[in-house]
Amino acid sequence: MTTIPLAARSSSGIELSQGPPNFGKVQEFEPFKSKSCRTMLFSPDGQYLAYVSGKTLKIVQTVSWQDVATIEDVKAYNLAFSPKSTFLMCWEPFTVNSANPQGSPNLNIYKSENGELVRRFVHKKQGNWEPQFSADEKLFSRMVNTDVVFYEDLNFERIVARINCYKVASYSLSPNVGTYFLLCHTPGSPGQPSFGRLFKYPDFEGNQAIANKSFFQADKVDFMWNSKGNNALLLTSTEVDKSGGSYYGKQGLYFISLTGQTMMITLSKEGPIYSVSWSPKNQEFCVVYGFMPAKATIFNLKCEPIFECGSGPKNSIYYNPHGNILLLAGFGNLRGQIEIWDAVNKKKIANCDAPDTTLLQWAADGEHFLTATTAPRLRIGNGYKIWHYSSALLFEKPWAQQEELYDVTWQNFPKLTFPEPKLVMKKVEGIAPSQPQASTQAYRPPSARNRPAVKFSLDDDEENPQKSGKDPVPSKAALKQKKKREAKKAKKIEEEISELPKPPPVISNVKISLTGDPDLDKKKKNIKKKLDAIEKLKAQQAQGKTLEINQLEKIKAEADLLEELEALSV
Fold it and tell me: How many CB atoms sit inside 10 A of residue 219's CB?
């Protein structure tokens, strides 16, 4: 079993540990002690690890875990490797001063093998800073204001093509090799739609677009290619939903193919789109959407729903690198529940809980994943855990109270390094979590503890996993009938609760005799009322309830009240 290392960046520096089954330190790497490590990154094939501390950029070769380059006077905040790990790109804030009013280039490209500076560019904004290479690294592109410029054959001096007539806000190169395709987003002017356009490089004239898709309400577009590069998803979003229907803004999901086919994906529940992900097997994709409890649906390449994973507290999707395991999780303001699915046979394998998780990542072997609680999202309880896909917790590393964990990441490996894991439904042996687990027992008030329980669900609209038909969108009549059924169910539960036998009231054994004198009788009734209350407190105390100080004082006053009542009866 090959051990996969993982790197952790914290307020004390960077350290490397072994993954399962060893979990020890990587002896060849000396932990880097620093309080100013801003970022770190493994190259796509895992050959290099780069990190920035203060004004120093280091590149480490992972075969020996020795430094191959140390670059000084670098203020980089973002790092990115080229697809074949040949180049390291870094962006630092653009600054001007009286000595240099024009500013200096702030986007630098280095050779990964030795840190040699290859080219420098000016890119003032942090948004869209990252240049994009083709998968074979023969094509290089970057944003220049609202244009996209292209360079070929690693010649960074000569621009060979340009998109300059569409005012591009964002773009994405396909992962194809040899023949290159590009998706770009052109925002619409007020009252006009935005456009997503698909081009084949280098044919960028308006009539040469392979496909055009127009959509309103699209301040931002996220492009998601499948790994073959023949199909893509476009997730459009606005910051604000002007209709007031959603706090999250408004989203739309569209499919676009190299054949020129475009389609809007119809979702069967209203609400936000939380997460979208292609299966690495390329034949399907998963979407989590809708007001809570959210739905998770798997679609085929015809954009037809083929399987419903049910609804529940989830907002995240994570396929393992081989595409045969799917994790559906609820993080952020949700409780950290994780569902583990056999993605091929559409069967749930297991569940586990990882509360306060801010990061989840699969290891390259497709069998293990890590969850972490990191700063600045959460500044207490920082640490990470390593899990087996059968839901067994294998290892956990908490951080000291005064330290903060910023990032954890597995080392990458070339594709096909690890075979697809054969799924076994039996849970492997793990460890018990150090954090106390929240009770799953529902709270029952004292008045209901001696009465039979009424079974009901807080989320009656939760749906079970099932295969989908071609048209899962319910009609208006079906929605109306559903509301009637829900109202009838709620009424039935209310009636069952009202019909349950009520426990007899707790009162004292003291009897009072009324005299007909209004003032005297009033005093006796008040004392009787206080004695009944004391008897009720004594009954609660006998059941094990912890009483407040003022309640204990009331019980102590019982003898005085009895004396007072006796004096009034003489």
Answer: 16
- Is-contact 148 162, C-beta < 8 A? yes
Task: Quote the pTM value.
Answer: 0.75
**H helix or E strand, kind and range, residue 531:** helix 518-542
- Ranges assigned E (strand) in 122-250: 132-133, 139-144, 147-152, 161-163, 170-173, 181-186, 194-200, 211-215, 220-225, 231-237
Residue listed under structure tokens 């500013």: 103
The DSSP element (H or E) to which 317 belongs, if any, is strand 316-319
Structure tokens at 504: 């007899």
Q: Which residues contact 149 (CB under 8 A, 6 or more apart)?
A: 141, 142, 159, 161, 162
How does residue 491 score in pLDDT terms, banded at 50, 70 and 90?
Answer: confident
Residue 535: φ, ψ to 5°: -60, -35
CA 68 to chain centroid, in Å, comes to: 35
For the chain, helix, strand, coil in percent to 5 are 15, 35, 50
Query: Does residue 238 contact residue 290 with C-beta atoms inside 8 Å?
Result: no
Q: CA–CA separation, 280 vs 3, rounded Å? A: 23
State phi, psi for 518 to the nearest 5 degrees: -55, -45
- Angstrom CA distances, 335 to 314, 330, 339, 465, stand at 9, 6, 12, 21
* C-beta separation of 429 from 388 below 8 A: no
The candidate with the shortest Cα–Cα distance to 18, out of 411, 505, 552, is 411
Return the closest-CA partner of residue 138 out of 106, 176, 108, 183: 176
Strand partners, 59: 50, 69
**HSE on the CB side for 36, CA within 13 Å?**
9
Burial class (CB in 10 A: 0-12, 13-18, 19+), 198: buried
Cα three-residue angle 135-137-139, rounded to 5 degrees: 100
Beta bridge partners of 350: 340
SS3 68: strand
Torsion angle of alpha carbons 386, 389, 393, 397, nearest 10°? 0
Preceding peptide of 105 cis, ω within 30° = no
CA–CA separation, 290 and 273 (whole Å)? 6
For residue 313 the two structure tokens come to: 């507290």
How far apart are alpha carbons 179 and 156 in whole angstroms?
20
The predicted-structure confidence for 63-76, as pLDDT tens digits, reads as follows 999 999 999 988 88
Confidence of residue 433 (pLDDT cuts 50, 70, 90): confident
List of residues 6+ apart from 380 with CB closer than 8 A: 401
R_g of the chain, CA atoms, integer Å: 32
Q: Are 337 and 312 in contact (CB under 8 A)?
A: yes
Region 142-166: mean pLDDT is 89
Backbone angles phi, psi at 270, to 5 degrees: -75, 150
Compute how many other C-beta atoms are within 10 angstroms of the C-beta atom of residue 554.
16
